[in-house]
Design brief:
The complex is a heterotrimer. Chain A is α+β, with helices and mostly antiparallel strands. Helices cover about 35% and strands about 15% of the residues of chain A. In chain A, the strands form five sheets. Chain A has a five-stranded parallel beta sheet, with helices on both faces. Chain A has a five-stranded antiparallel beta sheet with strand order 11-15-14-12-13. In chain A, strand 1 (about 35-40), helix 3 (about 45-55) and strand 2 (about 60) form a beta-alpha-beta unit. Chain C is about 75% helix and about 0% strand. In chain C, helix 1 crosses helix 2 and helix 2 crosses helix 5 (about 55-90). The mean pLDDT of chain C is about 90. Classes of the chains: A alpha+beta, B alpha+beta, C mainly alpha. Chains A and B meet through helix 3, helix 5, helix 6, helix 11 and helix 12 of A and helix 1, helix 2 and helix 3 of B.
């Protein structure tokens, strides 16, 4: 597998301008002859579909939800970073670039990250022009808040609903193009496979979730904006429908999958309350601006929080990381919480929780100010836990939130399969081994509005449009792929075993969380690979999918997704096992310093691990060496 | 806790539906309403019966997928809450609970409790946007917007497009949904340029999609999970009058 | 004029027409009540008022036609709205919803229909004088006597009071609702609009029912 990053030569800060200038263009009159399929309608998908249509391409966009507005980007709460330096606190494109590289524990590509930081400023302009009601100061200018892993205030926000507002902005642009007929929108349509013809991505196989009808759609390029795979852990902050199917099918069809083991565990989620739990709810990281994290100093201290005196509390983040304190990056904050709970200091019935306390902020700023900043989050917390966070400290615990790994892409966001692009969380590119808060929205929109619309032209310019080609052979291979998918669905339905797809998903999730979660070790990972293997075997013998394939069948949808998770989970464990170092969200217990901090191994692992599927054999691991010309690799320190 | 459930079952758009009675036991009070339905579905699958189809995705009250009418109230008994954020502690042990889909001509039923809300997308497509292309925009801080106005726009923009407003309305009017978008965009300076066109188009599509008209009962506001005020409908009406009688545009 | 038709027949336009005509009718009610109060001044005053009204039949009929058309338009557009709304909402919920909206707002059609039947009776009763053979023996303009005769009958008194009460319910929602429809509501004075709307409806109801009650109780003779 050839891993050519296609990184433009020259100075870091000139690379993107130069690349844009050097790129081939498709003339306006020719653009409409090219059809582009965009799968997914979240921040990346909706913004890409809208922008490509604005440019004149013929776009088809697919989502499994009943409306493109419901993609899971909508749930992002805290904010979006941009190097605007509106606060005059020393921010710059370079600082955002550096923070992101460092936050990612030096496992991302310099050129990609710098480009991200460059276009971040355009995103804010774009969103404001769309009518996104960002928070403002009394003078009428945009307000900022600070976020984990940064010492400047560069995060723009719209209450605790920033993802929603940005997605609705992209959705409105997409809607405008749909009304013009420039985008053909397919809702409740799930992609089940890719059509690869003559080694190029030329289409997708789609199931209409209401009628069960299968169709094949052809295009000159396919863009996957299908999000992350956090649901492999079953319990995560992802939406119930989030899945790995599209990326995994691409991987099975030959695209390289990069760093699957890089998973982000978010430190501030509401703890699990029982075995019936179906999802975990995130409390925005922005809460750590004003909330202080602590546990009792005494083991097993079950007194109510307010009875525990100040000197009996351990504000462990402030103690261990005095310069960043409660705003330490996510991976560090998460692991510290786990350490505290493992040491028996956890709070709540399950002992799996730490306090996030607002009492000193309320004392300092007043309840009203806190309400204005986090009102809806407090409301949400109270709804779920039946506790009033203005009076009792919140209880939080880490949960799977984001996946930095994804389909390998070059500088042009093209995967190893020509014609197949991956954007947003679905690709691996910008966050290395750990993503900083408020950077996911930034990356999704950067890819969709400002990167892909340029880079896709470079690819299409060399293609003869399908609309002007003989497609007989292509359609034959499309029908062939479609038939294979149908066979698989029939197989799922005809097992007629005893266990529901949900049960298998839960069991897989338990294995993943125990063995491939916040801490991993070689032995555990080996066991996990075996366990997943036997679970998968059981799945194909004992699955029970009710109903038929020719109707609205949520069990069949779920079964298909779980089937892919069952294979993908193994790949994650393999990757985690292969990476003999601790970096970012990937913490191998064998590789830590004496005081329990992650120990990176730059000599052997300063690379992207790219996995190539092989039919019957174990997958192959290729390496893309990461070259750092501008930053010096240092041990991350937030102390 | 235990509950007797009456759930609307309907196998597709055409078929006639009916209520079916189910019994669920061993329900924890900290379970969410949808987790209770998950549990019921697991029981049904074990008996090889068809599980209940219902829409859900984020399960944290923001995606707008969930759409259940619980004991006659869209999203259930708690104010400012979606069905997915509702917990069983809001019900009494042994209670009988009726669960129905949204009912409105413009929300045809797909199956059981799942409805088709494409009409909402059509309304947005007809004008719920500001016509700018990616990239060709001024600096974000070039137009200061008073905080009060930005906050008001945010209140309207909080709409999650779930459809509870139209589902709760005795006229199946989606005026609150239309108003939220019109009010958000017309309060902001960047949305004023096409405010007239927007309100006329969106109202026209609202009517064409078969939604009823607003008779100011306020039921929409009472069930809106984001507690969007019908004051925005007043603003919508004002915008409509201005566009209809003062601008050069026609409906 | 096609544009006007399109606007008036849209969902918001229909409401505008209903609200506008509704406010017109409220105006009529206020004027009507002011005239009626003359009954407290004495037989001469009210009979003279009636006589003056009929002195210029042309003007009277223009006003009457205006009033009738406003009334008719109010009803016609309401029928249209109701019909369309029924089509929009073909199936009700099995469980009646917990009260999410005021009784007045939900029962506009019911209260409106009762008021309509009252208006028909009221016209037959006092304008066309068809309900009581005794009226024919009276002098042409003896409104005072007609009232005195009619409101001895407890059934008529009760019907009048009931109707006026329903009118009050109708107006308590209708008046403030028309402000909403015209888009001249605002958080700052919403409460003022709502409360004055209710106050005006109560005032009208008390005012109108004061006459049959006073006569029935013998306060006016």
């Amino acid at each position: 597998m050839l891993l050519d990053g296609k990184i433009p030569p020259g100075n870091l800060s000139d690379k993107w301008s130069k690349a844009k200038f050097d790129m081939k263009l498709v003339s306006p009159a020719n653009k409409r002859k090219y059809k582009v399929i965009v799968v997914g309608s979240g921040l990346a998908g909706a913004s890409a579909a809208a922008t490509l249509a604005e440019l004149g391409y013929n776009v088809a966009c697919f989502c499994f939800q009943d409306s493109p507005r419901r993609a899971h980007s909508i749930a992002a709460q805290g904010g979006i970073n941009a190097a605007k330096n509106y606060q005059g606190d020393g921010d710059s494109v370079y600082r955002l670039f550096y923070d992101t590289i460092k936050g990612g524990d030096f496992r991302s590509r310099e050129a990609n990250v710098h480009r991200l930081a460059e276009v971040s400023v355009n995103i804010i302009d774009q969103a404001v022009a769309q009518g996104v009601p960002f928070a403002r100061d009394y003078g009428g200018l945009l307000a900022n808040r600070s976020f984990g892993g940064a010492q400047v205030s560069r995060t723009f926000y719209a209450k605790g609903q920033t993802g929603q507002q940005l997605l609705l902005g992209a959705y409105s642009s997409l809607s405008r193009q749909i009304s013009k007929g420039a985008v053909n929108m397919f809702t409740r349509s799930e992609i089940l496979d890719l059509v690869i013809h003559e080694d190029q991505a030329k289409g997708i196989v789609v199931r209409d979730l209401i009628s069960g009808k299968m169709t094949v759609h052809y295009a000159d390029a396919v863009v996957l904006a299908t999000g992350g795979y956090g649901n492999v852990f079953f319990l995560s902050t992802n939406a119930a429908g989030c899945n790995v199917t599209a990326s995994f099918r691409a991987y099975k069809k030959g695209a390289g999958f990069a760093n699957p083991c890089f998973t982000q565990i978010h430190p501030t989620c509401i703890p699990v309350s029982g075995h019936f739990q179906s999802k975990l709810t995130l409390m925005s990281e922005s809460l750590r601006n004003d909330g202080r994290v602590w546990v009792p100093k005494k083991k097993g201290d079950k007194r109510p929080a307010k009875e525990i005196a100040e000197d009996e509390r351990d504000y462990y983040l402030e103690r261990k990381y005095p310069s960043f304190g409660n705003l330490a990056p996510r991976d560090i904050a998460s692991r510290s919480a786990k350490e505290a709970c493992d040491a028996g200091l956890g709070v709540g019935d399950s002992g799996l929780g730490v306090y996030l306390d607002f009492s000193s902020a309320i004392e300092r700023l007043g309840e009203q100010a806190i309400k204005e900043r986090y009102g809806n989050l407090f409301h949400m917390y109270e709804k779920i836990t039946n506790e009033n966070p203005y009076k009792v400290p919140m209880r939080i615990y880490p949960a799977v939130h984001y996946t930095m790994g994804g389909l390998w892409v070059d500088y042009h966001l093209q995967t190893t399969t020509p014609g197949l692009f991956a954007i947003g969380e679905a690709n691996f590119s910008d966050h290395g081994a750990n993503r900083l808060g408020a950077s996911a929205l930034m990356q999704g929109l950067a890819d969709g509005y400002f990167v892909l619309p340029y880079t896709i032209g470079q690819f299409l310019a060399d293609q003869r449009p399908l609309s002007q080609s003989e497609t007989g052979e292509l359609e034959k291979s499309g029908q062939d792929t479609c038939q294979k998918v149908e066979n698989k669905l029939n197989k799922l339905i005809n097992i007629k075993g005893k266990k529901s797809p949900l049960q298998f998903h839960k069991e897989l999730g338990e294995i993943m969380w125990d063995k491939c979660g916040m801490e991993r070790d070689k032995k555990g990972l080996s066991t996990a690979i075996e366990d997943i293997g036997s679970l998968r075997e059981e799945f194909w013998q004992n699955l029970n999918v009710t109903g038929s394939k020719e109707s609205f069948n949520q069990q069949l949808e779920k079964a298909g997704r779980v089937a892919d998770f069952l294979e993908f989970g193994e790949l994650m464990c393999r990757d985690a096992k292969e990476r003999e170092e601790s970096c970012g969200g990937h913490f191998r217990t064998e590789h830590q310093t004496e005081d329990g901090e992650a120990k990176r191994n730059d000599k052997d692992f300063s690379h992207v691990s790219v996995w190539q599927s092989q039919d019957e054999k174990a997958p192959l691991c290729h390496k893309e060496k990461l070259v750092f010309e501008n930053v010096k690799l240092v041990t991350r320190s937030y102390k | 806790m235990r509950f007797t459930l009456f759930i609307w079952r309907q196998s597709n758009k055409e078929e006639k539906g009916r209520f079916k009675k189910y019994q669920v036991d061993d329900i924890s009070s900290s379970m969410s309403f949808l987790e209770m339905l998950d549990l019921l579905n697991e029981q049904l699958i074990n008996k090889n019966e068809d599980p209940v189809t219902f829409d859900h995705d984020c399960r944290e009250g923001i995606c707008g997928s969930c759409s259940l009418v619980i004991n006659g109230v869209a999203h259930g008994p708690e104010r400012g809450t979606t069905a997915c954020q509702l917990h069983m502690r809001s019900f009494k042990d042994g209670e009988t609970i009726h669960i129905e889909p949204w009912r409105a001509k413009s929300f045809p039923i797909n199956k059981d409790l799942s409805t088709n809300r494409r009409s909402f997308d059509s309304i947005i497509q007809s004008g719920g946007f500001i016509s700018i292309n990616s990239g060709s925009v001024p600096d974000a801080n070039s137009t200061p917007i008073p905080k009060t106005i930005a906050d008001k726009a945010m209140d309207a923009a909080a709409c999650i497009g779930c459809g509870a407003c139209a589902a709760a309305c005795k006229n199946s009017s989606a005026m609150l949904f239309v108003a939220a978008k019109v009010s958000q965009l017309s309060s902001l300076p960047q949305g004023k340029a096409e405010a007239d066109k927007r309100v006329l188009k969106m109202i026209s599509t609202h009517d064409k999609e078969g939604f009823g008209s607003c008779t100011n009962t306020g039921a929409c506001e009472a069930v809106c999970p984001k507690e969007i005020s019908i004051g925005h409908i007043a603003k919508l009406n004002r915008e409509f009058i201005r566009a209809a009688f003062k601008s050069d545009l026609n409906l | 004029m096609l544009w006007l038709k399109r606007i008036l027949f849209s969902s918001v336009g229909c409401k505008l027409v209903v609200a506008l005509t509704g406010l017109g009718l409220v105006g009529f009610l206020v004027a009507h009540l002011a005239g009626n109060f003359l009954v407290f001044v004495g037989p001469e005053a009210i009979n003279d008022y009636a006589r003056q009204l009929r002195k210029f039949p042309l003007i009277l009929w223009i006003l009457r036609l205006g009033l009738i058309s406003i009334f008719f338009i109010h009803i016609a557009f309401t029928i249209r709205l109701t019909r369309l709304n029924k089509i929009s909402n073909p199936q009700k919920y099995a469980v009646p919803s917990r009260e999410l909206s005021s009784f007045a707002s939900r029962s506009m059609i019911l209260s409106g229909l009762t008021v309509l039947s009252f208006v028909l009776y009221h016209l037959a009763h006092l304008t066309f004088r068809l309900t009581n053979p005794l009226f024919e023996q009276l002098g042409e303009y003896d409104v005072y006597a007609m009232l005195l005769i009619s409101f001895q009958n407890p059934i008529i008194v009760c019907f009048y009071i009931l109707s006026v009460c329903l009118l009050m319910v109708h107006l308590s929602h209708g008046i403030s609702s028309s402000f909403q429809t015209f888009g001249i509501k605002h958080l700052k004075y919403n409460k003022i609009v709502e409360n004055s709307s209710i106050a005006l409806s109560i005032f009208l109801a008390l005012g109108f029912s004061s006459i049959p009650i006073s006569i029935f109780l013998g306060l006016i003779q």
